Amino acid sequence: MQKQPPHLLTEAQFDALVAHSRWRGGFAFGGNVYDADARWPLGGGRVRYLRVEPFAGIHALYCEFDVGSDMQVTLAPRDDVLASFFLDGCLSGSTVGTGQDDLEFRPCHTMVRMPNRAGGYAIRIPGAQRHRFVQIRFERPRLLEWLRTTGAGLSQRTTRLLGEERPLVLCNAAWSAATGAALRELSAWNSDDAAFAPRFMARSVELMTLLSREFESLLEGARSRPPSRTPGAGRVQAARRLIDASPGEAWSVDALARRLAWNATSLQGAFRRDTGLSVHRYVKAQRLALAQRLLRSTRLPIADVAAECGWSCAGRFAQAFQQHAGVAPAAFRRGDGPP
Q1: Domain 7-227 adopts which CATH fold?
Q2: What contacts 236, CB < 8 A, 6 or more positions away?
Q3: Which tens digit of pLDDT belongs to each residue from 291-317?
Q4: Which candidate, 80, 71, 97, 76, places its Cα nearest to that of 11?
Q5: 241, 275 in Cβ contact below 8 A?
Q6: CB-count exposure of residue 11 (10 Å: 0-12, 13-18, 19+)
Q7: CA atoms within 13 A on the CB side of 254
């Protein structure tokens, strides 16, 4: 079965869907808090979205996506600098107007992007898998202020980069030990807990301070070239196209390697680097995404859905689906599930 195209959303449309679906309520303690927990209407699933503003012109965001269908969100052009810390997932994206797929998100790494006031950025979010990340967004003048206030030394290169008008993306600098410790603690908290928002507010200020101290080394450790230039990226994209076109096939690393005339070990390593997932986990995610689409859009018996998606045992399919979606396949088809 052919893979469905992603839902295309502007940033305003995305915000409207989240706010309309379920508003958890906001509060203020030294800054504004936007706290939403949405049952995703496009393909099912859930979005957890928390935005705090500890200081004027500086935002911290926690985003958690576990949605049933692929989507692409186009971020409006802004004069801001964004640092993203990735906890889980395999997002990608592009700088609008350049034709470059230059946004590459890897767990345990940071990406910094400069303003693209001409066109903004487009973020691709694959469905049927979990994505979590923390972002610190600075209005550009505020970032310079913040770096000077916190005593960060600014090299001529950094000052020049922050003043440039061209879009620039610096991908995948490894976290420092201090930043990693702060993010691991945040990652261990339950985002459904009422205490998560104030905890995140406090942790966001710590992350901002760490970011200012490490900004120079972060820029030095990042790269500014499209991920398509990394070794094996073209073959990984070919492997993903094969899986996406027919998730129910009996894909394995060896089977894909034979199709691509490549070494299985090299394929697995490149696949993990490019997607953050093993081949097995990626195949499973695509099968679950197909299952969600079939349950919602057809009246096929559940056993037939299981077979179409690559499960020979309907019981094992039901177990995997409930673990992923939080409800049994029949309940998902009825529209039941967690809010």
Answers
A1: Jelly Rolls (2.60.120)
A2: 267, 270, 271, 274, 275
A3: 888 888 888 999 999 999 999 999 999
A4: 76
A5: no
A6: middle
A7: 1
CA distance linking residue 46 with residue 67, whole number of Å: 6
CATH T-level topology, domain 230-334: Arc Repressor Mutant, subunit A (1.10.10)
Domain ranges of the chain: 7-227, 230-334
- The model's confidence at residue 23, banded by pLDDT at 50, 70 and 90, is very low
Question: Is residue 126 very low, low, confident or very high in pLDDT (cuts 50, 70, 90)?
Answer: confident
Share of the chain above pLDDT 90, in %: 10
**What mean pLDDT comes out for the span 192-200?**
82
Residue type, 202: A
Q: Of 122, 46, 60, 54, which is closest to residue 91 (Cα–Cα)? A: 122
Residue 59 phi, psi dihedral angles, 5° rounding: -115, 150
pLDDT of 241 higher than 90: no
Q: Classify residue 136 by burial, with Cβ atoms within 10 Å: 0-12, 13-18, 19+.
A: buried
Closest CA to 35 of 65, 8, 67, 62: 62
| Angstrom distance (rounded) from CA 211 to CA 222 | 14
Answer whether 136's CB lies under 8 Å from 104's CB: no
Could you read off the pLDDT of 35-48 as tens digits, one per residue? 777 788 888 888 88
CA distance linking residue 35 with residue 42, whole number of Å: 20
